[in-house]
Amino acid sequence: MDERQFWLMVQQAHELSGGDMERKCEILTALISKLAKDDAERFAHYFDAMMDRAYSWSLWGAAYVINGGCSDDCFADFRATLISCGRQSFELVLADPNRLAGDDLDEIDWFFEGVQYAVHDGVKAATGGTDYQREKAYSLQPSGMAWAEEDVYALFPKLSQKFASPSAHTQSIVKIPAGKIKRYLSRLKIWLSIIAVFAGCIIIAHYISPLLGINIKMALLATMVAVYLLLSIGVEIYRYRVRKSV
């Protein structure tokens, strides 16, 4: 596994995903899991190296403008997403973060949380459950020149025009972080789905309790176990299809 092969795998996952970040992560995990142990660990090391290269104030500023604010964890998701878009996009954006203004990727997808997990899960599968160790310690400070929040929008005029509100240049503190709102809404949908499934289990348990001659608590437990097993089987079938397609 060398750097060229690393980028070829990343590009393969990017192209096969069709722009769907969740599918991209599934494909990337499947590709890494098929590697030999040493190659999988080398892949992870190259990924870490690219994350370190992208740890710069200029790129962090671009992420800040796009998202209306950007924590360290949020910036890590941003860098991982950028890597997942392939070598050409990665190098061009590092050279000029304003190029992100011309990208079609949805604002929320730039801060997708799954890429780092995809690499971790793929390596763990390839190594039989062993966690790899970083070759270098994490950088304590980003490279380049730091910026002040009140100045960051002026540094990225193209991004500010596309993502920021008209008053963002002078009122960055009160700017509504649209990317964060979208992520919160996405998580809310997940929780609502969980609540809906739980409510469905209660309704089913209510009906099967007298049929099976058991109390409602036991019926609810049996229903939840059955639903969990069905969902687990569905997830494994989906993962199997992803692995077979790459």
TrEMBL record:
Domain DUF4240: 1-121
Membrane spanning stretches: 190-208, 214-238
Highest rank taxon of the organism: Bacteria
Keyword line: Membrane, Transmembrane, Transmembrane helix
Pfam family, one: DUF4240
Record protein name field: DUF4240 domain-containing protein
